[in-house]
Amino acid sequence: FKCHELTGFGGAIKNLGMGCASRKGKLVQHSTVAPVVAEKYCIGCGICPRACAHDAILITGGKAIIDPQKCTGCSRCITVCPVKAINIQWNEAADLVMRKMAEYALGALSGKSGKAIYINFITQVSPACDCYGHSDAPIVNDIGICVSTDPVAIDQACADLVNGARGNEGSALQSGFEPGGDKFRGVWPEITWEVQLEHGEKIGLGSRKYELVRV
Ligand code: SF4
Ligand code: SF4
Asked: What are 32-89's pLDDT values in tens digits?
């Protein structure tokens, strides 16, 4: 269970929706996300072209340019840029990714009702996607392991547990340090992370209501 630059956090819904999707399905889910380079901030350092696994970035005239035909919207370039020159045109892109993700999760479970359980490790809660080749200081200390048969309930419970913890000074967290503060917006303020939970519940993926039993 981690923070995530597109979805606020990544837990059971994300692992189901993205993890169980075909390559084409992953691309479809990311397809509405289009990062752009703010030319005036780009210093032409060359880091983002090296980080892009899809050769979608070229340095031209000392500035990075993203080829939208090659870009899959993975957002890795956003996290590696040292001057934060790359951003997503947020409008509704992130919300749409989360809705698609919940729907793909529902599809992945089709025909498997009652045959799946979810285990979320709330440990090493890094500020960005853990598919990258680097990590960062956890935004909260390790909390524990959650188990549930409901992917929405477990993600809601984990989000509440992380938000209920004290944030770590010196991590990527910028606000919400106090217990109860919104840790996910504290790292990714533009992301309405609740969308994946709301939509998951709406389409019948699970329930946001849960009972936490500590063992
Ligand atoms: S979002 Fe991913 S694929 Fe697109 S340019 Fe950035 S690193 Fe490359
Ligand atoms: S990492 Fe940032 S500053 Fe460096 S080339 Fe890419 S956009 Fe420009």
From this structure: 776 889 999 999 999 999 999 999 999 999 999 999 888 887 778 888 899 989 987 6
- Where along the chain do its domains lie? 1-32+90-215, 35-88
Burial letters 169-199, b for 16+ CB under 10 A, else e = eebbbeebbeeebbbbbbbbeebbbbbbbbb
Q: Which of 30, 48, 77 to mutate to test the pocket of ligand 1 (most atoms within 8 A of CB)?
A: 77
* CATH number 3.30.70.20 is the correct assignment for the domain at 35-88: yes
Cα radius of gyration (the chain): 18
Is the pLDDT at 24 greater than 90? The verdict is: no
78 Cα nearest atom in ligand 1: 6
- How far does the centroid of ligand 2 lie from the alpha carbon of residue 42, in Å? 5
Q: Which ligand is nearest to the CA of 44?
A: 2
Six-digit token string for 208: 């946001």
pLDDT at 105 over 90: yes
The pLDDT of residue 71 is 86
Q: Is the CB of 35 under 6 A from ligand 1?
A: yes
Return the ligand 1 atom nearest residue 73 CA: 1
Residue with more model confidence, 18 or 92: 18
**Other beta carbons within 10 Å of 22:** 9
Considering every ligand atom shown, identify the ligand nearest to the alpha carbon of residue 39 and give its number: 2
